[in-house]
Protein backbone atom coordinates (compact mmCIF):
# COMPACT_ATOMS: atom_id res chain seq x y z
CA UNK A 1 0.00 0.00 0.00
CA UNK A 2 2.84 2.37 0.85
CA UNK A 3 4.53 1.65 -2.48
CA UNK A 4 1.30 2.31 -4.36
CA UNK A 5 0.85 5.58 -2.49
CA UNK A 6 4.45 6.56 -3.22
CA UNK A 7 4.06 5.71 -6.93
CA UNK A 8 0.87 7.74 -7.13
CA UNK A 9 2.63 10.66 -5.47
CA UNK A 10 5.52 10.38 -7.93
CA UNK A 11 3.10 10.34 -10.85
CA UNK A 12 1.42 13.45 -9.48
CA UNK A 13 4.82 15.13 -9.15
CA UNK A 14 5.66 14.36 -12.77
CA UNK A 15 2.31 15.60 -14.01
CA UNK A 16 2.82 18.81 -12.04
CA UNK A 17 6.37 19.25 -13.37
CA UNK A 18 5.93 18.38 -17.03
CA UNK A 19 4.08 21.06 -19.02
CA UNK A 20 3.42 21.32 -22.73
CA UNK A 21 5.04 24.06 -24.76
CA UNK A 22 3.07 27.28 -24.84
CA UNK A 23 1.50 27.41 -28.26
CA UNK A 24 -0.75 29.56 -30.37
CA UNK A 25 -2.97 28.58 -33.29
CA UNK A 26 -3.01 31.15 -36.07
CA UNK A 27 -5.90 31.40 -38.57
CA UNK A 28 -5.22 30.19 -42.10
CA UNK A 29 -4.99 32.80 -44.84
CA UNK A 30 -4.59 35.77 -42.48
CA UNK A 31 -1.87 37.55 -44.42
CA UNK A 32 -1.16 41.07 -43.19
CA UNK A 33 -2.98 43.88 -44.94
CA UNK A 34 0.30 45.72 -45.52
CA UNK A 35 2.06 42.70 -47.03
CA UNK A 36 2.83 43.25 -50.72
CA UNK A 37 4.31 39.85 -51.65
CA UNK A 38 2.77 36.65 -52.96
CA UNK A 39 0.22 34.96 -50.68
CA UNK A 40 1.94 31.58 -50.81
CA UNK A 41 0.89 28.82 -48.35
CA UNK A 42 4.41 28.30 -46.99
CA UNK A 43 4.37 31.89 -45.64
CA UNK A 44 1.07 31.37 -43.83
CA UNK A 45 1.80 30.44 -40.19
CA UNK A 46 -0.74 28.05 -38.65
CA UNK A 47 0.85 27.45 -35.23
CA UNK A 48 3.84 28.45 -33.11
CA UNK A 49 5.29 26.78 -30.00
CA UNK A 50 7.84 27.78 -27.35
CA UNK A 51 9.27 25.82 -24.42
CA UNK A 52 12.37 25.96 -22.20
CA UNK A 53 14.19 23.02 -20.61
CA UNK A 54 16.51 25.03 -18.40
CA UNK A 55 19.31 25.17 -20.98
CA UNK A 56 17.64 25.56 -24.38
CA UNK A 57 14.65 27.27 -25.92
CA UNK A 58 12.70 24.92 -28.16
CA UNK A 59 10.98 26.81 -30.98
CA UNK A 60 8.72 25.28 -33.61
CA UNK A 61 6.05 26.28 -36.08
CA UNK A 62 3.76 24.83 -38.71
CA UNK A 63 2.91 26.52 -41.99
CA UNK A 64 0.13 25.94 -44.53
CA UNK A 65 2.59 24.70 -47.17
CA UNK A 66 5.99 23.05 -47.62
CA UNK A 67 8.72 25.23 -46.13
CA UNK A 68 11.02 26.70 -48.76
CA UNK A 69 8.49 26.77 -51.58
CA UNK A 70 8.89 30.55 -51.83
CA UNK A 71 12.35 31.82 -52.81
CA UNK A 72 13.63 34.31 -50.24
CA UNK A 73 11.35 33.16 -47.42
CA UNK A 74 12.57 33.29 -43.82
CA UNK A 75 10.94 32.79 -40.43
CA UNK A 76 11.92 35.19 -37.68
CA UNK A 77 11.36 34.86 -33.95
CA UNK A 78 11.59 38.26 -32.26
CA UNK A 79 12.71 37.82 -28.65
CA UNK A 80 12.41 40.37 -25.85
CA UNK A 81 14.94 39.45 -23.16
CA UNK A 82 14.31 42.62 -21.15
CA UNK A 83 15.46 45.50 -23.33
CA UNK A 84 13.06 45.13 -26.24
CA UNK A 85 12.29 48.04 -28.55
CA UNK A 86 9.78 48.49 -31.37
CA UNK A 87 12.31 47.81 -34.10
CA UNK A 88 9.66 47.16 -36.76
CA UNK A 89 8.31 50.68 -36.24
CA UNK A 90 10.27 52.11 -39.15
CA UNK A 91 8.59 52.13 -42.53
CA UNK A 92 5.00 51.49 -43.53
CA UNK A 93 3.15 49.67 -42.12
CA UNK A 94 4.49 49.99 -38.57
CA UNK A 95 4.35 47.05 -36.13
CA UNK A 96 4.89 47.56 -32.41
CA UNK A 97 6.61 44.24 -31.69
CA UNK A 98 9.22 44.63 -28.94
CA UNK A 99 12.45 42.66 -29.29
CA UNK A 100 16.16 42.91 -28.55
CA UNK A 101 17.20 39.77 -30.43
CA UNK A 102 16.00 37.58 -33.26
CA UNK A 103 16.19 33.89 -34.07
CA UNK A 104 16.03 33.44 -37.83
CA UNK A 105 15.16 30.09 -39.40
CA UNK A 106 16.12 29.58 -43.03
CA UNK A 107 14.54 26.90 -45.23
CA UNK A 108 18.03 25.54 -46.01
CA UNK A 109 18.41 24.54 -42.34
CA UNK A 110 20.56 27.48 -41.23
CA UNK A 111 19.86 28.95 -37.80
CA UNK A 112 20.88 32.56 -37.12
CA UNK A 113 20.77 34.13 -33.66
CA UNK A 114 21.24 37.89 -33.46
CA UNK A 115 21.37 39.81 -30.18
CA UNK A 116 20.99 43.57 -30.34
CA UNK A 117 22.68 45.56 -27.54
CA UNK A 118 21.48 48.96 -26.40
CA UNK A 119 24.71 50.33 -27.88
CA UNK A 120 27.20 48.90 -30.32
CA UNK A 121 27.06 46.32 -33.06
CA UNK A 122 24.80 43.24 -32.92
CA UNK A 123 26.25 39.81 -32.16
CA UNK A 124 25.49 37.32 -34.94
CA UNK A 125 25.82 33.55 -34.63
CA UNK A 126 25.14 31.25 -37.60
CA UNK A 127 24.59 27.52 -37.04
CA UNK A 128 24.54 25.37 -40.18
CA UNK A 129 21.99 22.59 -39.84
CA UNK A 130 20.54 24.17 -36.69
CA UNK A 131 17.00 24.09 -38.06
CA UNK A 132 14.97 20.95 -38.68
CA UNK A 133 12.75 21.32 -41.74
CA UNK A 134 10.16 18.58 -42.26
CA UNK A 135 7.50 19.32 -44.84
CA UNK A 136 5.46 22.23 -43.53
CA UNK A 137 7.16 22.40 -40.11
CA UNK A 138 10.22 24.12 -38.68
CA UNK A 139 11.93 23.55 -35.34
CA UNK A 140 15.16 24.49 -33.60
CA UNK A 141 16.82 24.30 -30.21
CA UNK A 142 18.46 27.60 -29.21
CA UNK A 143 20.93 27.56 -26.28
CA UNK A 144 20.25 30.05 -23.50
CA UNK A 145 23.91 31.03 -23.83
CA UNK A 146 23.06 32.65 -27.17
CA UNK A 147 20.05 34.47 -25.69
CA UNK A 148 21.41 35.60 -22.33
CA UNK A 149 19.17 37.77 -20.20
CA UNK A 150 18.89 41.51 -20.71
CA UNK A 151 16.86 41.93 -17.53
CA UNK A 152 14.19 39.21 -17.64
CA UNK A 153 14.24 35.62 -16.42
CA UNK A 154 14.20 33.14 -19.35
CA UNK A 155 10.63 32.06 -18.61
CA UNK A 156 9.57 35.71 -18.85
CA UNK A 157 11.05 36.30 -22.31
CA UNK A 158 8.51 37.28 -24.95
CA UNK A 159 8.52 35.55 -28.35
CA UNK A 160 6.77 36.64 -31.55
CA UNK A 161 7.07 34.79 -34.86
CA UNK A 162 6.70 36.27 -38.30
CA UNK A 163 7.24 35.02 -41.84
CA UNK A 164 8.98 37.21 -44.36
CA UNK A 165 9.51 37.18 -48.12
CA UNK A 166 12.59 39.25 -48.78
CA UNK A 167 12.96 41.06 -52.07
CA UNK A 168 16.70 41.15 -51.47
CA UNK A 169 17.80 37.88 -49.81
CA UNK A 170 20.88 39.62 -48.41
CA UNK A 171 18.97 41.89 -46.03
CA UNK A 172 15.57 42.71 -44.60
CA UNK A 173 13.77 45.51 -46.36
CA UNK A 174 10.55 47.32 -45.55
CA UNK A 175 7.86 46.02 -43.20
CA UNK A 176 5.74 45.34 -46.29
CA UNK A 177 7.81 42.14 -46.71
CA UNK A 178 6.31 40.65 -43.50
CA UNK A 179 3.59 38.18 -44.47
CA UNK A 180 2.14 36.82 -41.22
CA UNK A 181 2.46 37.11 -37.43
CA UNK A 182 1.90 34.52 -34.70
CA UNK A 183 0.44 35.51 -32.37
CA UNK A 184 -1.30 38.38 -34.13
CA UNK A 185 -1.41 40.37 -30.88
CA UNK A 186 0.79 40.05 -27.83
CA UNK A 187 3.54 37.46 -27.52
CA UNK A 188 4.35 33.96 -26.27
CA UNK A 189 6.38 33.14 -23.18
CA UNK A 190 8.30 29.90 -22.85
CA UNK A 191 6.83 27.09 -20.74
CA UNK A 192 9.22 25.00 -18.62
CA UNK A 193 9.77 21.36 -19.53
CA UNK A 194 12.22 18.91 -17.89
CA UNK A 195 15.77 18.58 -19.14
CA UNK A 196 16.68 15.18 -20.68
CA UNK A 197 18.64 14.33 -17.52
CA UNK A 198 15.53 14.97 -15.43
CA UNK A 199 13.50 12.66 -17.65
CA UNK A 200 16.16 9.95 -17.17
CA UNK A 201 16.09 10.37 -13.39
CA UNK A 202 12.31 10.12 -13.39
CA UNK A 203 12.38 6.97 -15.52
CA UNK A 204 15.03 5.37 -13.31
CA UNK A 205 12.96 6.27 -10.26
CA UNK A 206 9.91 4.61 -11.72
CA UNK A 207 12.04 1.56 -12.50
CA UNK A 208 13.06 1.31 -8.86
CA UNK A 209 9.44 1.74 -7.76
CA UNK A 210 8.28 -0.91 -10.21
CA UNK A 211 10.96 -3.34 -9.07
CA UNK A 212 10.11 -2.78 -5.42
CA UNK A 213 6.42 -3.28 -6.09
CA UNK A 214 7.16 -6.48 -8.02
CA UNK A 215 9.36 -7.77 -5.18
CA UNK A 216 6.62 -6.94 -2.71
CA UNK A 217 4.06 -8.85 -4.76
CA UNK A 218 6.33 -11.91 -5.01
CA UNK A 219 7.00 -11.85 -1.27
CA UNK A 220 3.26 -11.57 -0.58
CA UNK A 221 2.55 -14.49 -2.93
CA UNK A 222 5.11 -16.72 -1.15
CA UNK A 223 3.56 -15.86 2.21
CA UNK A 224 0.11 -16.76 0.95
CA UNK A 225 1.40 -20.13 -0.30
CA UNK A 226 2.99 -20.88 3.08
CA UNK A 227 -0.27 -20.13 4.83
CA UNK A 228 -2.12 -22.45 2.42
CA UNK A 229 0.36 -25.35 2.98
CA UNK A 230 0.15 -25.02 6.77
**What's the total helix number?**
2
State which percent range the strand residues make up: 25-35%
Average pLDDT across residues?
Answer: 82
Number of domains: 2
Please tell me about this protein's structure.
The chain folds into two domains: 1-18 and 195-230; 20-192. The chain is of the alpha+beta class and 230 residues long. It contains two helices and 14 strands. Helix 1 packs antiparallel against helix 2 (196-229). The model is unreliable at 2-19 and 225-230 (pLDDT under 50). It has helices spanning 2-17, 196-229, and strands at residues 22-25, 45-52, 56-63, 73-80, 85-86, 98-99, 101-105, 111-115, 123-127, 131-134, 137-143, 158-165, 178-182, 191-192. Strands 1, 2, 3, 10, 11 and 14 form a six-stranded mixed beta sheet that branches. A six-stranded antiparallel beta sheet has the order 9-8-7-4-12-13, with no helix packed on it.
Topology, pairings included?
Elements: H1 2-17, E1 22-25, E2 45-52, E3 56-63, E4 73-80, E5 85-86, E6 98-99, E7 101-105, E8 111-115, E9 123-127, E10 131-134, E11 137-143, E12 158-165, E13 178-182, E14 191-192, H2 196-229
Parallel strand pairs: 2-14
Antiparallel strand pairs: 1-2, 2-3, 3-11, 4-7, 4-12, 5-6, 7-8, 8-9, 10-11, 12-13
Give a concise summary.
With 230 residues, this protein is α+β, with helices and mostly antiparallel strands. Helix content is 22%, strand content 32%. A hairpin with a 3-residue loop joins strand 2 and strand 3.
Amino acid sequence: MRLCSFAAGALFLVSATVAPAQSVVDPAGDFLAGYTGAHNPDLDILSANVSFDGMNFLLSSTQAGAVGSSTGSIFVWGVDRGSGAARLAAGTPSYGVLFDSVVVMFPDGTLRVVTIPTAGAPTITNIAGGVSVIGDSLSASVPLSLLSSAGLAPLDYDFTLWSRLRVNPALDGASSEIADFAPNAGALSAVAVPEPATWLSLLLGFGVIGGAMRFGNIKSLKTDRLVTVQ
